[in-house]
Amino acid sequence: GRGLAETKALIQDMMNKDLLQVALGYELEHGAPLMPVEALASELDLRLSPLALGLLRLRVLHDALRALQDQLKKDVRALIKRRLQELLEAHGEASRPTDAAAATAATASAAAAADGLPASDAAAADGSEPKVVDGGETVKPAKKIMDQLRELSLDGFEAVMAGVVAPLMVLLRRAAAIHTALKKALAASLATSVTSQADGGVEEEEDAAGAYAKQVEQQSAETLQAVCELAHERYARLLKVTQRSHARPPLHCPLFFV
């Protein structure tokens, strides 16, 4: 009995992992790719459906969907943060002092030396937070992402947001394609259940199977909505940065619920 239960649990874990990797489009051990890959509906239908149906028959598909939602949300957060950092660096805004800032720092340091003060005290006097590194050199810490966004021109901000939105939409389209593939698989399962009942199958068991299929279909829809809502919330938060700095919002949010 115990050996059978352990074998069943092992098979379930393997199927859960396989479903996640097919749905996400990458191997979990290697982590998400730097840029998400467009999902092919035909590939998801072919590879995702058998795994989903197997987990459905074991009545454990809900566990896989919960893990899928967690990973998709993690991927959304990581993608937005990574793309912002990459794009801000490309615009020369990431933790790199401008010539003017360097000149100001040099002037402050010289003035501090004349007054007999440490350079770090002078840097602190202009509102910055100096950091002492090896060798006693004092440098300013990297600016926060939101601060860097505020300092962008309107055109620069629009370019950064466009660079964030493009891969984000790829990820959201994949989430929608996953839901569509699961709906197809569950619809086939429900059709089989109805046919079995019509042929005189065990009605109570088939009713329970049909109810579970509807439950996980609703869970799949909620997963898609949760991922879209997270993406929308993060994007809207970035838009608020420029709404305080510029006269007009630079972008209309292109994210949508499917």
Specify the overall morphology: elongated
The helix content, as a percent range, equals over 70%
What string, H for helix and E for strand, traces the elements in order?
A: HHHHHEEHHH
Mind telling me the C-alpha Rg? 26 Å
Integer average pLDDT: 79
Low-confidence stretches: 117-128, 247-258
How would you sum up the major sheet? 2 strands, antiparallel
User: What's the helix count?
Assistant: 8
The first-to-last residue Cα distance is 45 Å
Strand content: under 5%
Q: How many strand units?
A: 2
Query: Structural class per helix/strand content?
Result: mainly alpha
Strand order of the largest sheet: 1-2
In brief, what are we looking at here?
This protein is mostly helical. It contains eight helices and two strands. The chain has a two-stranded antiparallel ribbon with strand order 1-2.
Describe the overall structure.
This protein is mainly alpha-helical. It has a two-stranded antiparallel sheet. A hairpin with a 5-residue loop joins strand 1 and strand 2. Helix 2 crosses helix 7. It is elongated. The C terminus is likely disordered.
Question: Keyphrases for this structure?
Answer:
258 residues, mainly alpha, two-stranded antiparallel ribbon, 2% strand
Summarize the SSE layout with pairings.
Elements: H1 2-24, H2 41-57, H3 61-90, H4 99-115, H5 119-125, E1 131-132, E2 138-139, H6 145-151, H7 154-198, H8 203-243
Antiparallel strand pairs: 1-2
Helix pairs in contact: 1-2, 1-3, 2-7, 3-7, 3-8, 4-5, 7-8
